[in-house]
Design brief:
The chain is α/β, with parallel strands linked by helices.
């Protein structure tokens, strides 16, 4: 009779761990190579595996142990926290030796995990423990940080030591883990967005999926506080003090952290202490150093930022405002220094990433950032050809027309090899001629919109951003090109002389462009007048919301605050003729509240602003107050007091009839009517100027 073998619990645990170990093929192959070769004539003798907490170092060492035992090697596994005596005892217990003396055939494998927690530090490991191992040993050290400079300064260790950085899992490996857990692959994009492939985060996310109703994954870490707590303690080193915590939080919120960024985030901390905090940050396992500054690893950034927002919303908003103000000032101070301005603009866009629905940014990428350059004569045909391929012949012809007249308004983006990958233009519509509008119906529609809603006055700029495209063969390249043009646009807003209207035309299929423009107070326009096709045009009237107010509003949106009123281009819905007609009707109905409630002026910017400033005032009284203010302006101008008297007896304190009013003022009726029309026109003009200059939100 055959007796079925019953596994003990340890064997079941081992099987489950093996089944869920995914990825790390390159690291396993490197270990296998040294496992087969070995010996003193082969190097290295020590593999140094490093990475932040939870990235899978212990799991990898467990896999190494299985491979070594399967190859017949003697294995010693020693966890962190041990003192020298305990480490030596573990080696004796596992390998049966207390120093040199094993035969070459034994070729032991020594796995030292979580060495950062060893109380004796790296010096004892480097100077005493590892040199005492048999020459044919293969040692693996797992640490949160790469080996210190003393290892690399030693010519012997430089030869015998190999570093293996352990990164987050690739999507394929995360997909394999989901399959091992019996979860559908449709969750993979959301899991990667939430965890960045960090193994511990993926494991906890899997458990959250199992608990969640209908297997719905959280939209963000903020929705699962327990997940934040569990990961923070495992991934991020605990700050030793309050200033260190603030520095860590600032580094998580900023795109790139320099000492200047820390000074902006911590204005009350002395500069010398800021320098010390920056040095502390650069030593953290979750922070990497780049040529431009420090940045946390993506998951650590997400965890620290979500934790601050949860525990201190006001402090989070203050940090955001300080960093944003610092970067805006950096852009303004960097005029004439393209590299510095470009870096500040990238980081401003990084702060705006919630508006794009992005969890990452090009600030996280290691690639060299692309830049926009002016179009030279030799570039013109390339630009036309690219537009022809991506937007068709009509767009190419239109671009060719503008290139002949305003080539300086175009910018191009090229890849590392010099190939053209993006095109954009900022056209000065206030300077165009009638033949330009005939060649470009879209530009004509924009100027028609200006005339219908709030005409530009002499000397005011009307700008149009057109032909904003990037190559469609690579998603990351498209995002890079889009960021370049957004940075150019943002720089233009911050540095140029004041503009009246600004239009931006983008591909209708670009959700990130549309989301950003709407959050930047640009409203979709043209409506039914928009031509068939995929392009959408957005507009902003800078006389209604100037740059200062715009910065406040966009900062609030970046923090998730709701702005009550709709985008600005929808506010000025009355062309001047209709606006003036509504003013005239308001004068006629000045003493009829129910009629005033139907007046279109209640939708104007000035009326909306008055109503927001004092919500207790009824709408009819708001209109009456606006008319009275305009009349008062006439009254206070000695040159127009005769017009005020006519306005007063006609509308403010009306006589029984206009004929009676003319009689009371001792004016011929024809003169009375002429004065009346001039007075009404003056009131309309004053209210129109107020509406245009101040509007919903004065700059």
């Amino acid at each position: 009779m055959t007796v079925a073998r019953i596994d003990d619990l340890g064997e079941r645990l081992q099987r489950e761990r093996v089944r869920r170990f995914v990825g790390r093929a390159a690291e396993l192959e490197i270990f296998a190579e040294h496992l087969v070769t070995g010996g003193p004539e082969h190097t290295p003798a020590v593999l140094w595996v490093y990475g932040p907490g939870g990235v899978g170092k212990s799991s990898l060492l467990a896999a190494y142990a299985r491979r070594a035992r399967a190859a017949g090697r003697r294995v010693a596994e020693i966890a962190g926290g041990a003192d020298p005596a305990a480490v030596r005892a573990a080696l004796v217990d596992a390998l049966g030796f207390a120093g040199p003396g094993l035969t070459r055939a034994d070729r032991p494998v020594v796995l030292l995990d979580a060495v950062e927690h060893w109380p004796v530090g790296e010096d004892w490991l480097r100077e005493e423990l590892l040199p005492a191992l048999p020459a044919q040993s293969l040692a693996v050290v797992a640490h949160r940080r790469p080996p210190g400079h003393r290892w690399l300064a030693d010519p012997g260790w430089r030869q015998l030591l190999r570093m293996l950085p352990l990164d987050d899992l690739e999507p394929a490996a995360v997909g394999a883990l989901l399959a091992a857990e019996g979860l559908p692959q449709r969750h993979l994009p959301a899991v990667m967005r939430l965890t960045f492939g960090h193994p511990l985060a993926v494991a906890l996310c899997v458990e959250e999926l199992r608990r969640a109703d209908a297997g719905q994954i959280p939209a963000s870490l903020a929705e699962v506080p327990a997940l934040i707590d569990g990961l923070l303690s495992a991934v991020v080193d605990r700050p030793p003090g309050g200033a260190h915590r603030i520095a860590l939080q600032a580094s998580a919120h900023a795109g790139i952290t320099t000492e200047a960024v820390l000074r902006a985030a911590m204005p009350d901390v002395p500069p010398t202490e800021v320098s010390q905090l920056w040095d502390w940050l650069r030593e953290l396992s979750v922070v990497e150093e780049t040529p431009t500054g420090l940045r946390p690893l993506p998951l650590a950034r997400s965890l620290i930022d979500a934790d601050l927002r949860r525990r201190d919303p006001e402090g989070y908003a203050l940090l955001h405002q300080r960093l944003r103000g610092h970067l805006v000032e950096q852009v303004r101070r960097s005029a004439g220094h393209p590299a510095a301005a470009h870096q500040a603009l990238r980081e401003l866009l990084f702060l705006a990433r919630p508006l794009l629905g992005d969890t990452t940014s090009r600030c996280e990428a290691n690639s060299r950032p692309a830049r926009a350059t002016r179009v030279g004569p030799s570039d013109v045909q390339d630009v036309v050809d690219l537009l022809g391929r991506l937007r068709g012949g009509a767009a190419a012809r239109t671009a060719g027309w503008w290139l002949d007249r305003y080539r300086e308004s175009f910018r191009v983006v090229r890849d590392e090899a010099g190939g053209l990958i993006g095109v954009g233009a900022r056209l000065p519509l206030h300077l165009v001629r009638s033949e330009d509008l005939a060649a470009d119906p879209a530009a004509a529609r924009m100027l028609r919109y200006v005339e219908q809603h709030a005409p530009a006055r002499p000397g005011e700029q009307v700008l149009a951003w057109r032909f904003l495209i990037g190559g469609r063969d690579d998603a990351d390249r498209q995002r890079g090109v889009a960021e370049v043009f957004r940075g150019w646009h943002l720089e233009d807003i911050l540095l140029r002389s004041p503009a009246a209207w600004e239009f931006v035309t983008v591909d209708g299929g670009s959700r990130s462009w549309s989301a950003l423009l709407q959050s930047w107070d640009f409203a979709e326009i043209l409506g039914d007048d928009r031509p068939a096709g995929r392009e959408i045009t957005y507009a902003h009237d800078w006389r209604r919301v100037g740059v200062a107010a715009w910065l406040e509003r966009t900062a609030a949106r970046e923090l998730g605050e709701r702005i009550d009123d709709e985008p600005v281009a929808h506010v000025a819905t009355l062309p001047y003729e209709d606006f003036a007609g509504s003013v005239k009707q308001a004068l006629r109905d000045l003493h009829q509240p129910s009629a005033l409630l139907r007046n279109p002026l209640l939708g104007s910017g000035i009326a909306r602003a008055r109503r927001r400033a004092d919500p207790e005032v009824s709408p009819d009284r708001v209109l009456r107050g606006l008319v009275s203010d305009a009349a008062q302006v006439l009254k206070e101008d000695p040159r127009n007091q005769h017009l005020y008297r006519v306005l007063d007896r006609t509308y403010l304190r009306p006589a029984a009839s206009q004929e009676k009013a003319a009689e009371l003022l001792d004016l011929p009726f024809t003169t009375f009517r002429r004065y009346r029309d001039r007075a009404v026109a003056s009131v309309s003009d004053w209210l129109w100027e107020l509406d245009v200059d101040s509007g919903v939100r004065s700059a």
